[in-house]
Write a structure and sequence with these properties.
The chain is an alpha/beta fold and about 200 residues long. It has 6 helices and 8 strands. It is globular, with a radius of gyration of 16 Å. One of its GO terms (molecular function) is hydrolase activity.
């Protein structure tokens, strides 16, 4: 039997949103993920695609929100350090909102929901890490009634160990997470699907 998503079984037809009418949420594009203990696998390519998406969203007049993980002073995600700072290529500019969080779900006790607006709003989500903060935020956004688009090729993650020591490769973890989110949480696209080649 051919595998189907819950969306397809329910007859839901999804289409990419109009950038000009959508809210773009960029999650945790921070230097912490480029090097060190939390370095992702090939994050540079995801950042480059996120930069293209951000430029197109700015040109279209999208509502843009940047989310950053907030760590303790001297630790990972210390926002006062280079490690916790936004990656230059996708840094906020004047007029773009910044939300700081201490949990994986960017909506939890941050005020993000008020910035995004009412249920039904088109929300485009991309960021780091696919399996953690991206997944948690997408699922929360789904529960809040937003129409969600996940930009798969602008996301990335890292290798993770299983309890028996087996390593789950980042590429596999990323693909599995994206497949799970595409089942019933949101439309899965690549940057080119939203902005063209």
């Amino acid at each position: 039997m051919t595998a189907k998503t819950i969306f397809s079984l329910e007859g839901v037809v999804l289409a990419p949103p109009d950038l000009a009418k959508a809210t773009l949420i960029l999650i945790d594009y921070q230097n912490e993920y480029l090097a060190g203990p939390l370095a992702l696998v090939e994050p540079e390519s995801a950042v480059a695609r996120a930069a293209r998406l951000l430029a197109a969203a700015r040109a279209a007049g999208s509502h843009i929100i940047h989310v950053a993980q907030l760590g303790e002073a001297g630790g990972i995600f210390d926002r006062a350090s280079v490690r916790g700072a936004f990656i230059d290529a996708v840094s906020p500019v004047e007029g773009e909102k910044v939300v700081e969080k201490v949990n994986a779900n960017a909506f939890f006790e941050t005020g993000l929901q008020a910035l995004v607006g009412p249920a039904g709003t088109d929300v485009i989500i991309a960021g780091f890490m696919t399996h953690n903060c991206v997944s948690s935020t997408v699922r929360a956004a789904c529960d809040l009634g937003y129409a969600i688009t996940i930009v798969a090729d602008a996301c990335a993650t890292r290798d993770l160990p299983l309890p028996d020591g087996t390593i789950v490769a980042a590429a596999m973890l990323h693909r599995a997470t994206i497949a799970a989110l595409g089942d019933a949480q949101g439309l899965i696209v690549d940057v080119a699907d939203l902005i063209g080649a």
